[in-house]
Amino acid sequence: MQDARIRLISLISLSIATFLSVPGAVLSLVWLLLSPGTLKETMRSAAFWVILLFVTIIATATQMSGNEGISYFIRTGVIILLAFSVYREWHPGEYLDLSVWLFGKKYGFDIGLAVEMSIQGLHETSREFSRIRSALSLKGLQPGIRLIPAVGFLLIHTRLMRARDQADLLATRGYRAGGSCCPVFRTTNRDIIMGILAILVVFLSFMPVRDIFILQM
Amino acid sequence: MKLSLSSVEWNAGSWKFHADASFTPGVHLVSGRVGSGKTTLALLSARLLQPHAGAVEYEDIRSYTLSFQYPEYHITGSTLHEEAESYGVDPSAACARAGLAGRGHEDPFRLSRGELKLFQLSCLFMRRWDLLILDEPFSALDCRGKLAVCRSIGENRSGIVLVSTHEQHILPKTDYLWEMRTGDLIFRGPLPEAITAWESAPGPIRMLRGQGVIPANLTRDDILEAECRMHE
């Protein structure tokens, strides 16, 4: 999906639908299946499976205690899948454009800049983590609990150093608040169709299952 | 002892890396612009990156390591003493070699990046490696530090030393010259013959070449000697 505005609307719609009901979650999953490339990339993420594992543990405990664990698992699982898929489609500068379009050049610019820097930071942390793992293997050290403090401290240290450099850079460029940005969006026909389908999913999720699938005996 | 990259390919989006090369003992200098693929070559050679096609093969290479451009990635100890121990070298000797004698109790993060880089390289140079891969070993170093690293590289030439850098002024005594050009690894040949074919040669070497003077090698002394010849 190229247009960040439609992606945001789709994300909000599908999140509501998924939160409201299990059929909403199933329909959201079907919507995600319409973009198999992104979904495939998401499924390759180790972080996704780790989070899903925790969700599974909580869902199992909920189900065993007599509550709706399966419903929780399906809905939360799909919301996580949505979050990861949308995150994968991010392009640098996109949320700055989106935020300025939504909230204007003052607050919108500040929010957009903060979001962009945060996402960029996440990407960099992921790359740094991969380099640190390589450095550990070169020293013949196996990643384990003993090394968590060292690796954690290193990641925080590099993030803080980067944040300081970024702050200096912004100050040097004269940044105080707000800024000039002319948002540009590229909308394809596919984006429009996917956006309409996402809104449709919200309406369908309000309906009882029997009204959609005519399951009443 | 040989490192072979047989028809190795690696892709990142539309960017493609390709290498078909063999590295034998000696100092191999890989030059190239930022983003040309030097770090990718280093990672593939250290087998930290799996090629999408082709194979990276080690022949009689029993010990190998890679030094990243940013020395912070290598830190696992809370003091320089612990850090040196993690490389299996004598902490006091490592500190002394890096010009940090008596500072073994200090936190590695308290050092400047240049000091940390020199310390990390000193730890590596205190061991013998069949294959030593140095990704931008001169970054963050001052002139003295760069010259010290050049000397240490020379001391390790019994093994394969792969030095990828965009350094323009202080370079080690080199046996073989390679160039990375937009993802393609090109062999320019042994020194000094390779200098004539070196497309991304540093300014001083280009100037000498323009005057018809070819230095014997790439060290600062070689360049000075060639400049003297130019004025004869």
Q: Taking strands numbered 1, 2, ... along the chain, how are they ordered across the largest sheet of chain B?
A: 5-6-7-3-8-9
User: What would you call the structural class of chain A?
Assistant: mainly alpha
Task: Specify the helix fraction band of chain B.
Answer: 25-40%
CATH fold-type name of the largest domain in chain B: Rossmann fold
Which stretches of chain A of 5+ consecutive residues score pLDDT under 50? none
Number of helices of chain A: 9
Number of helices of chain B: 7
Low-confidence stretches of chain B: none
Short characterization:
The complex is a heterodimer of chains A (217) and B (232). Chain A is mainly α and 217 residues long.
Can you give keywords for this protein?
A: about 220 residues, mainly alpha, 9 helices, B: about 230 residues, Rossmann fold, 6-stranded mixed sheet, 3-stranded antiparallel sheet, 9 strands
How is this fold's topology laid out?
The complex is a heterodimer of chains A (217) and B (232).
Chain A: H1 4-20, H2 22-33, H3 36-43, H4 46-64, H5 69-88, H6 94-138, H7 148-172, H8 189-206, H9 209-213
Chain B: E1 2-12, E2 15-23, E3 26-31, H1 38-45, E4 53-59, E5 64-67, H2 80-86, H3 91-97, H4 113-125, E6 131-135, H5 143-155, E7 160-165, E8 176-181, E9 184-190, H6 203-210, H7 220-231
Helix pairs in contact in B: 2-3, 4-5
Description:
The complex is a heterodimer of chains A (217) and B (232). Chain A has 217 residues and is mainly α. Chain A has one domain. Chain A has 9 helices and no strands. In chain A, helix 1 runs antiparallel to helix 5. Chain A starts with a helix and ends with a helix. The model of chain A has no long low-confidence stretch (mean pLDDT 87). Chain B is of the alpha/beta class and 232 residues long. Chain B folds into 2 domains: 125 residues, 3-Layer(aba) Sandwich (Rossmann fold); 54 residues, no CATH class. Chain B is built from 7 helices and 9 strands, in the order E-E-E-H-E-E-H-H-H-E-H-E-E-E-H-H. Chain B has a 6-stranded mixed sheet with strand order 5-6-7-3-8-9, with helices on both faces. Chain B has a 3-stranded antiparallel sheet with strand order 2-1-4, with helices on one face. Chain B is globular and about 50 Å long. The model of chain B has no long low-confidence stretch (mean pLDDT 92). Chains A and B meet through helix 6 and helix 7 of A and loops of B.
